[in-house]
Here is the input.
Amino acid sequence: MTTHQAPGDSPYRDLPSVDRLLADARVAALVPDHGHDAVAGLARTILGEYRQAIAEVGAAPAEPVVDALLTRAATAFRPSLVRVVNATGVIIHTNLGRAPLARSALDAIQRVASGYSNLEYDVAAGERGSRTSHLDATLCRIIGAEAGVAVNNNASALLLALSALCRDREVIISRGQLVEIGGGFRIPDVMRQSGAHLVEVGTTNRTYLRDYAEAITDRTAAILRVHSSNFRVVGFVEETPLASLAELARERGLLLIDDLGSGALLDTRDFGLAAEPMVQESVRAGADVVLASGDKLLGGPQAGIAVGKAAPIEAMRRHPLARAVRADKTTIAALAATLDHYSRGDAVEAIPVWRMIAADPETLARRARRWSRACGPYGVAVEAQSTIGGGSLPGEELPTTVCAMTPPHSPVIGGSADALAAALRAATPPIVARIVDDRVLLDPRTVDPSEDWHVEATLSAICGTAPLEPEGAGAGR
Ligand SMILES: *Cc1c(COP(=O)(O)O)cnc(C)c1O
Here is the structure.
């Protein structure tokens, strides 16, 4: 028997109603986890797409609506922000969330945020306390500053410093330091926002002390130095040493503000890297306010740290903007725990970014070889370079060993490095690698060893090799 579509009859009628979809046991099973309204909303979206297909091509997709809904639910209800495995070898990867936190910082967040805390409460006195008190002493002890305050991030610390200390006055900065930090954050724009007036001196590659001195007027509030953290000018270059700027500022009654970015508290030269200016050095050299990021080389949570002389820090604390950019309790807890490692002298062991910087080359090579074995004929361990990233130590590299993968000619990957990288990103959690010369490179330096099994299992699955035996299995046989 053939079916005839009567005039007025239509494929629309064959579509189930939202209620009927929700009555399906497999769809109903989504409701406890995701809520009735969200599942019903997804059902309406899918039904809308089916109706549109009918309108455009005269027929609904062949796939039953329920199946389409279940497939979509698998991605639609996944949290947007998820853990990923960073196999790029870029340690402070801004797109991947910069610094992973130390165990102690995570514990501190858990302790403070799972209940109430004395965030702004003086327990001994039983009265209102100060949220900045929790970090003040630690910052001063480690850095040797008179005072310190933590805010939302370094960008807001700079905005706050300029707003509180330089509004309607002039700020002198070298033309070589009128930089864009990233994401459109440009020093001249921040300056404008703060109400301070920018006075540019010197040239892109050379600025002398006399350039600063000649620009000082009775309207000048400060000299600002911005560390060119994400690029390097090489060749015929002259920057005025910070100590000379400090002396000039002191003589002329100005403030010296030093925006460092990275927030290195350890000497990067001890790790075979170029020197990155250290926060303590800037304070010692006489800067009145030093600004640093919490989640670059400091290895803590996203934060902006301002340390220096008591008076300007106090002025920053009291400025109305301070309230708008203040750090929250989880940040304060994590930052305090991170800073404690510097006090105790175990930062290199406990703080992930330093652990990665200091990683033993032989251990990295052994892991890269194991990953390569998981790839069978498609993987080989080769020497390569890791980078610091996050606008710290541009051009500086750390020797490493990576697993270099040649894209298999499988149906999914078809010999394409892009397709191979996409297959790695399709894993749960996604594995992010880099592509160099049509090969996909995976660097163990930035992967926590506890995630090696996931990397190895994913590589085996993609390359069609037998899973590796657990490390150490068969030893002694
Ligand atoms: C990274 C950086 C900033 C911005 O810091 P965030 O913590 O990302 O806001 C500001 N100044 C310098 C010199 C930087 O390197």
